[in-house]
Amino acid sequence: MEIKMPGGGRSFGLKLILVGALAFLLWLPAMLVYGLVFERSTRADEVRRDIYERAGGEQSISGPVIIAPATVETGKRKSDGEPVLETVFFTFTPKELSIDAAIDASQRRRSLYEATVYDADIIMTGKFEALAPPAWPNDIQKIHWDCAILALKLGDNSALKGIRNTPTLVINNKPHDGAFEPGVMLTATGRYNSEISQTAPGISTGLPITAPEQGFQFQLVAPMSGGGSLYFSPVGEETSVTMRANWPDPSFQGAYLPDTHNITAEGFVAEWRIPYLARNLPRSFAVEGGLTALDAGNRFGVVLIDAASPYQSVNRALKYALMFLGAVFLTFFIFEVMTNARAHPAQYILLGLAQVIFYLLVLAFSEHFGFEAAFFGSAAATVLLSSAYAATVFHSFLRGLIALIAFSGAYGLIYLLMKSEDYALLIGSVTAFGAIALTMYVTRHLDWYGARKPA
Q1: Please, are residues 371 and 313 in contact by the beta-carbon 8 Å criterion?
Q2: Where do transmembrane segments lie in this chain (predicted)?
Q3: Gap between the Cα atoms of 268 and 262, Å rounded
Q4: Which of 44, 110, 134, 264 is deepest in the core (most CB within 10 A)?
């Protein structure tokens, strides 16, 4: 297909418009690849969540806290004048809480997909000072300290799968002989002798308190497993958390960022310090809604991300697919301008399809061989194919060599886009400007209405 002006000349202006339209049309199948990436990544997320759940889930740990039932007046009276009583559960938070979490992370594979799981040795030390009940609108007749429990709240009931061994509790340097039970079960007699019951996911052990005004020190060791992330809640008036892991790609999430962190190729160390006024939690309060006040909106921790996942990188590159299709077509168009040879629109289409298939090759091979090997193998094959095609179309080995250099540079930029999240927009915009500037320079003397006159 040749676009000719009267008198036999060719219109480069109309040819450039046609090339731009072809680039846009070939961008549509690239978006179909984008849909395929979304489908594969969704499937990977499903497999990852299933692996997480079997390993214990994305752990969220709140505690330890003390919970004791209390008999309080409701403010109402019976027919005989006696006050109507009910039972509420008071929760008491520690004065000091220090958490040390040593995380041993690894990857578990199922079919084509991988998920990050971990074993964590969690040591919680601290102390409870004098246990004072919260302000209450009516009289508190009695707090049943003999029925008190020490509870550690987890994210949900499936998190119990992550308990690798029986937790150990030491009170005032003496081992606690009470057994831990699954779940935090709160059952008592409510108003008008009705039975009330509240439950929360976690573990608990009976801890009768004889002198609530004296307080005590504690150490709780909880070997836990999980997948993907580990969160804590600042339940202590002064909470400090130290995390150490052999994972080089942490993402710190939640209500608080670490005060200090050090990330290396071997792993990371992060520390948090949360004071009382920043935790948005009173020293003591009545239990409502299964201890949700402990972690509602104030948990923090780390997500062990997989930086080698191909889906995010391929998605980022596909956002600039139209720009790179245009850059490849501009290279061909500049060759047309600088030589007497002409490229047919069908040849542009074949060249563009090769660039679209490149993304598909990267996605397919990266699921089997890893992203780096998939990218460089697919890029080398596509660049060599496109350069050899350019040499054939323009009947020049030199033109093919120039195309090889140009296409290699373009795919080098694609690699930077895939690997650099922070600078992807900067790289893409500068590349687009450079491509337009180069085209304007090369075609500055071109007669857009007809064929270029011999020099």
Answers
A1: yes
A2: 317-335, 347-365, 371-390, 397-417, 423-443
A3: 5
A4: 44
More confident residue, 231 or 188: 231
pLDDT in tens, 284-332: 988 876 688 888 888 999 999 876 677 877 887 787 788 788 878 887 7
Residue-wise pLDDT tens digits, 234-286:
999 999 999 999 999 999 999 999 999 999 989 999 999 999 989 888 899 88
Q: Which of 104, 108, 127 is nearest to 116 (CA)?
A: 108
pLDDT value of position 93? 94
Percentage of the chain surpassing pLDDT 90? 33
Measured torsion, CA atoms of residues 315, 300, 166, 227, in degrees rounded to the nearest 10: 0
In this predicted structure, what is the pLDDT of residue 450? 61
List the Cα angle 65/66/68 in 5-degree steps: 145
Residue 142 has pLDDT above 50, yes or no: yes
